[in-house]
Amino acid sequence: MKRPTGTPPRSGKSPVAEKRSQPAPEAARPSRRVKRHRKPRRGGILGWIAGLVTLVWRILWGSVWRLAMTVALIIGAASAYFYVSLPEASALFDGRARGSVTMLDRDGRVFAWRGETYGAVTSDQIPEVLQEAVLSSEDRRFFRHFGVSPRGIASAIRINLAEGRGPLEGNGGSTITQQVAKLLCLGDTFDPTRFANEAEFEAECRSGGIWRKIKEIPYAFAMEAKYSKEEILSIYMNRSYLGGGARGFEAASQVYFNKRAAELNVSEAAMLAGLLPAPSRYAPTASLERAQARASVVLGLMNEEGYLDDAQLAQARANPATLSQAATARAGGYFADWLMESGPGFLTSETTEDVTITTTFDQRIQRAAERALQRVFDEKVKDGSTAEAAVVVMSADGAVRAMIGGRDTRVNGVFNRATQAKRQTGSSFKPFVYAAALEAGYSPSDRIEDGPLTIRIPGGRNWSPQNYTRNYRGMVTLTQSLAQSLNTSTIRLQEVVGRDQVIRVARDFGIVSNLTTSPSLGLGASEATLMELTGAYAGIRNGGTSVAPYGVVEVAMQGDDRPLMGQTGGFGDRVISQRAAGQLIYMMQQVISNGTGGRAQLGSRPVAGKTGTTSSYRDAWFVGFTEQYVTGVWMGNDDNTPLTGVTGGGLPAEIWQAVMSEIHDGLPELPLSTVSPDGSGIIMSSGQSTPQVVTSGSADDPLAAALAGVMNGVEAQNSGRVITAPGEVQGGPPVTPGSSVGAESDDALSRALNGILGGN
Fold this sequence. Notes:
Layout: H1 15-21, H2 45-85, E1 100-104, E2 110-115, E3 117-118, H3 128-138, H4 150-162, H5 176-183, H6 198-206, H7 210-226, H8 229-239, E4 246-247, H9 249-257, H10 266-274, H11 279-282, H12 288-304, H13 310-318, H14 325-329, H15 333-342, E5 355-359, H16 363-380, E6 388-394, E7 400-404, E8 423-424, H17 430-439, E9 447-450, E10 455-457, E11 461-463, E12 474-477, H18 478-483, H19 487-497, H20 499-509, E13 527-528, H21 530-541, E14 545-548, E15 552-557, E16 570-574, H22 578-594, E17 608-613, E18 619-625, E19 630-636, H23 651-663, E20 682-686, E21 691-695, H24 702-711, E22 722-723, H25 748-757
Parallel strand pairs: 1-5, 3-4, 9-22
Antiparallel strand pairs: 1-2, 5-15, 6-7, 6-19, 8-13, 9-12, 10-11, 14-16, 17-18, 18-19, 20-21
């Protein structure tokens, strides 16, 4: 069948056209490339560096704000912790671990402080000039910062580095608020299990270091939030240590200028403000010139801050601050130290309260003694000499009036040679041998041999004392023996009386140090302090009644009218009779008028005393008295090396004479007499001749009047009985203590008087 030919008829669209008219599928569409403009790549090492910097910056920037926020949160939390622990501002004014001891002299004037003195002052009581001086020198922007000054810290680091120190060594850039934080020890309290004492604790609190600096920051912020600026300044003004034992500006004003802080002038305020960086170095009592120079710097800073104009600055510098009279004298350092050592600890060295002690101290006598001692050393002692000296002055009842514990008198807390140095007493011990003999019934005119003597000591050894001159006087009276300080006659007398009796007399008079029992006892082989020996001589001076040297009259809490403790010493028990004491005083007068103590004479004023020099010249003494005062002097080297050509009758006697001349200036010349504290009404008096008995009690006492009338007519006897040591016979049988050979020197009346008074 044939396929049809021809064109078929069109109906509608052509399939091809229809196909063409249909949209092409997406996949079938040709894609057009979009050209993007890229930054040209940096090639080489610069590209790597840029990439690294970018990476580091992104890390740091991402970390810094996080770190800053973390630090801020820590500081905020720490500040909040410190904030809630801070008490009221007034509770922080007094930061002392111990109380203070204020000492008053016999006239009620302050002469010394011990411990840390304190006086509270509030912000409204701080004088404007003092506030300006402190702010100028310590923190100029105090009222403009929030407790920490970044500018100040940066400046301090720059200065430290420029001066070759570490960044935190030297200048710290601390604000007053930070200094208060350090004074408060960041809220820590003393822990005895961690620190040996308060001083070690405070040193730790004030130590530097970056960690402590960091801890100060939140504490300072807490204080700024808790307290006003005026309260922070008040804490600072009360807690700062300003030298001289003064804690706070009120106490320092009293110590250095004897006035309240509210009364300070510009120069005085500048001097106190200048003490803050280094109180010990700039203290005016250490060096007034250095303190004034530092005050001049503070005045310049006040001028820069506009607190002083040029005219005021010039006037203040032309009139620098000076110390008060009491602070200038600085009298009584050794005396004050003695009281702190000898008094009860809970009222002195260990007191936690503020205590006032009324004492026996006499500033006039102290200054006179210091002048005299200095004059003798300037005139009589070679330059460069290491010899030391000590002086004690007391009344007959044991009240200590002055004390010098060494050539350097402007000190405190140092070795006191008057109370702490135990040295051999030498011949100054001999009066106790003669006191024992007189108490046993011997008299000043009794005679004893001064000649070669050998004493056998247990163990087979022999001891032979010799005189200083190596010569012997033969038969001498007891008065001559003591006046010339003869050794062999003294030892013979000691052996007659008995060493045990000599020891008893010395101990009862107040020699508390160990005493040897060997024959050398009578020559002062034992040791004692100057205070002991002077107190023992006071017992002789007052008629044979012992005394306990004392310096405390009354102890009371500050502001309390009722005393906690009264007088600590004074008259004790009778040691020898008034008759024996009167005779011994007479004999000791001859030491000065006719014997080894000639350089101690005070013109026509009656005096008595005794020299003392130890073997090898290691110690030299002179102790003696007038009617008014008993004074002891010691000289020696601290290392116990011999003195060069010094004996008790030399420089010590001259020092004694100079001291007594000064302190007796203007006092009447009174005859020596014994004191009768037991009220017997009979006093033994020694004139320039023989001991006499006078009445000092009721004129109606017939016995006293009769005894005085008879004894006042007795003349000196030129001869007395002979005293022989056991085993020695000189013109008669051995004499026992109290026996009589020759009635002329010890008649019935004398024996009766001895019987009446000997038991007193």
